[in-house]
Amino acid sequence: MQDIRWQQRFQNFQRAFGLLREAMDQDLKQLNQLEKEGIIQRFEFTFELAWKVLKDKMEHDGLVIDQISPRAVVRLAYQAKYIADAEVWLRMIGDRNLMSHTYDSAKFELVLQAIASDYLPMLTEWQLGLLAEIVQGQE
Fold this sequence. Notes:
By secondary structure, the protein is an all-alpha fold. It has a single domain (about 5-139), classed as Nucleotidyltransferases  domain 2 (Four Helix Bundle (Hemerythrin (Met), subunit A), Up-down Bundle). It is built from five helices and no strands.
């Protein structure tokens, strides 16, 4: 693999995402509060890497990013067809921000459910698309 920043950050994303998926394989109803907080923290870290991979990939491809914030990067990524569903990405931003500033157990449960039902499937699809692109580039 070429020494390309977005691919290096993508490798870090893959490791973090693997840890998040591993944690989400547990029965959420059986987890204690500390374990749930650990999953939320893994989600926050994984999302941070995901939006930065998007930014690095778009810059690598020659897109000019005027405003470097998660929301601005997601909007540009959607416009440029790097992601298929901006709404889910924007919800991830909102949930990541909410969990950074809130310790409400009901909200924790809602975010955990969103991770399981919406965010993991979307991030898995996005990850597979980038992996396919890397493999094509090596052929």
